[in-house]
Amino acid sequence: MSRQSTSSRTHDDSGPDDDDYRRLLELRTGLRQFLHWSEQQATGVGITPAQHQLLLAIRGHVGGTAPTIGDISESLLLRHHSVVGLVDRAAEAGLVVRHVDPTDHRVVRLGLTPLGARRLRQLSGVHLEELRRLAPRIRSLWANLDRLDDGRRDRSDR
């Protein structure tokens, strides 16, 4: 029995086809290129990529209070002790501060220093510009995924 090539699949097959693999590769390549570019931008302003992510996680934290180490661990998908080390190094670099929660003295909250806020502002500006530049390509990838999903749903309804 011979193996069927992926390019000769029938429309009834709901598995990925060659175009799906190309789209997935294009998306992953684009994400990796953006992340590499982002890392270069962080290094260019004198901070590490991890410090950039930390600053963004602190500033972008949703909630009525400043984030804790645990909040940042969740945002960055890192273990608690890894974030403690990251915060220690960022505090030494003058980027972040720790402060005790005024209502619960057991809780330590994180904030940006003026230097940390300035670095984040610099990076966020160029990141937003780059995302605006990439938006048409990203939109077309999403549109292709939406069309793919609609086509599969139509085939499964038959």
Element layout with pairings:
Layout (H helix, E strand, L loop, with lengths): L17 H27 L4 H11 L9 H8 L3 H13 L3 E5 L7 E5 L1 H43 L2
Antiparallel strand pairs: 1-2
Tags for this entry?
single chain; 158 residues; mainly alpha; Arc Repressor Mutant, subunit A; 65% helix; 6% strand; elongated; disordered N terminus
Brief account:
The chain is mostly helical and 158 residues long. It has 5 helices and 2 strands; from the N terminus they run H-H-H-H-E-E-H.
How far the N terminus sits from the C terminus, by CA atoms, comes to 29 Å
Strand order of the largest sheet: 1-2
List the quaternary state of the chains: single chain
Per CATH, which architecture?
Orthogonal Bundle
Assign an overall shape.
elongated
- Ranges where pLDDT stays below 50 over 5 or more residues in a row are 1-11
- Beta-sheet strand percentage? 5-15%
Radius of gyration: 22 Å
Number of helices: 5
What is the string of helix and strand elements? HHHHEEH
* CATH superfamily descriptor: Winged helix-like DNA-binding domain superfamily/Winged helix DNA-binding domain
CATH top level label: Mainly Alpha
What count of structural domains?
Answer: 1
Please name the CATH topology: Arc Repressor Mutant, subunit A
The tally of strands reads: 2
- Average residue pLDDT: 87
